[in-house]
Amino acid sequence: MKMAEGVEWALHSCLNMTWLQPGRAVSAARLAAFYGLPTAYLNKQLQALVRAGILRSVSGPRGGFRLARAPEEITLLDVVTAIEGAEEAFRCAQILRQGPGGRADVDYRQACLISQAMRRADLAWRRELAGQTLAQLREAVGDRYPDTPRNTRERLVAPPS
Amino acid sequence: MKMAEGVEWALHSCLNMTWLQPGRAVSAARLAAFYGLPTAYLNKQLQALVRAGILRSVSGPRGGFRLARAPEEITLLDVVTAIEGAEEAFRCAQILRQGPGGRADVDYRQACLISQAMRRADLAWRRELAGQTLAQLREAVGDRYPDTPRNTRERLVAPPS
DNA sequence: GAACGTCTACTCGGATAACTCATGTCCGAGTGATTTTGG
DNA sequence: CCAAAATCACTCGGACATGAGTTATCCGAGTAGACGTTC
Q: What is the helix (H) or strand (E) element at residue A12, kind and residue range?
């Protein structure tokens, strides 16, 4: 049960975009150069964020990606779900149906107590992620690392070399 | 981020074993026949549970697997960890180290606020799973489905054929 | 000088390989019960 | 009849194929800006 590596990239990239002036787009190439990531593959992850409605893409010169809505309205769960998919980690295969007394007309994803327990854990995980917004993260980072916002903005607008 | 299918098998198998008289061993073949699972592969999962100290294996005729300790002392987290491994789903690759101002002497798994948030969610998930023991599950199932304990015991001891 | 048409360069977007890890299977080592044989 | 030893069948245990999903890459479609040309 390992999470895709693209989740980390997506989270950091989205957080970095919160420091840009609204409406300003950043190309996938610059976002990738920020952490030395493979450009094409990061682009793929950003496309997933576009499909999820978190980012908005702009074609042509001066184009790129920008946040589709305010950082206050984007939770960590939104980003994780966009990359990993909405289905929960534990998928009940309803093996009780094959056991003694198993019935075909029963939904064991609801009836099975093991399935219920696993879903409770999954909900706790989701609740924790849904309670954190990009805006809260941006503020926390700004407090602890005051130089980060400016450095990030400069490097995203005009990368070195 | 999908969980291994063996987790479901392991959970149900361990729960079924709680209804056997203590010290009684069940072969992997009978546990597999219970839900129509592939015997060899279930055996592989049970071996992982043995390595984790949850089960104890007995060789030879009348051998098999049995719980290594009381159901009150086995949590769902124990079983899940035994199959999936102890490392958390989100593994911080410390990409901040490659960014501007990144330092090699900083552990970004601790310093990165994104990493912290993901770890909080992971801990919430683990806490939920650690709060459920096999004994609690066994009691809940016995209350809701009174026939299950007897049916399970009979079928594990003498499967139809 | 201004407006229009063309052209270019830059961007995303999806289709296409390579590789890792989970899935699935097999046969050998070990062991305890059973049977057989001798006293 | 009893005991001891050899046999045997059953079990786990790890080593070996297979397949799906993630990782990684590439090139084409589309677009906005820039340039040159013309009125």
A: helix A6-17
What is the per-residue pLDDT across A27-79, written as a single tens digit (0 to 9) for each? Answer: 999 999 999 999 999 999 999 999 999 999 998 888 999 999 999 999 999 99
Radius of gyration of chain A measured on its C-alpha atoms = 20
Distance of CA B93 to the CA centre of its chain: 27
Pinpoint the alpha helices (H) of A18-133.
28-35, 39-51, 76-84, 108-111, 113-130
Q: Could you report how far apart the first and last alpha carbons of chain B are, in Å?
A: 39
* CATH no. for A6-86+133-157: 1.10.10.10
From the list A50, A47, A31, the residue with the least C-alpha distance to A39 is A31
Tens of pLDDT, residues A115-135 = 999 999 999 999 999 999 999
Check if the beta carbon of residue B109 is closer than 8 Å to that of residue B92: yes
Q: Calculate mean pLDDT across residues B7-12.
A: 97
Compute the Cα dihedral for B42, B43, B44, B49 and give only its sign: positive
Query: Which CATH code, of 3.10.129.10, 3.40.228.10, 1.10.10.10, 3.40.1160.10, is assigned to B6-86+132-157?
Result: 1.10.10.10
Judging by DSSP bridges, how do beta strands A55-58 and A64-67 pair with one another? antiparallel
Q: What is the nearest nucleotide to A30, using C1' and CA?
A: C11
Chain A interface test: which of B34, B35, B137 (most A C-beta within 10 Å): B35
Q: What is the dihedral of CA A37, A41, A47, A49, to 10 degrees?
A: -50
Write out chain A residues lying below 8 Å of B101, CB-based: 147-148, 151
Residue pair B54/B14 in contact (Cβ under 8 Å)? The answer is yes
Cα–Cα distance for residue pair B63/B116, rounded to 1 Å: 46
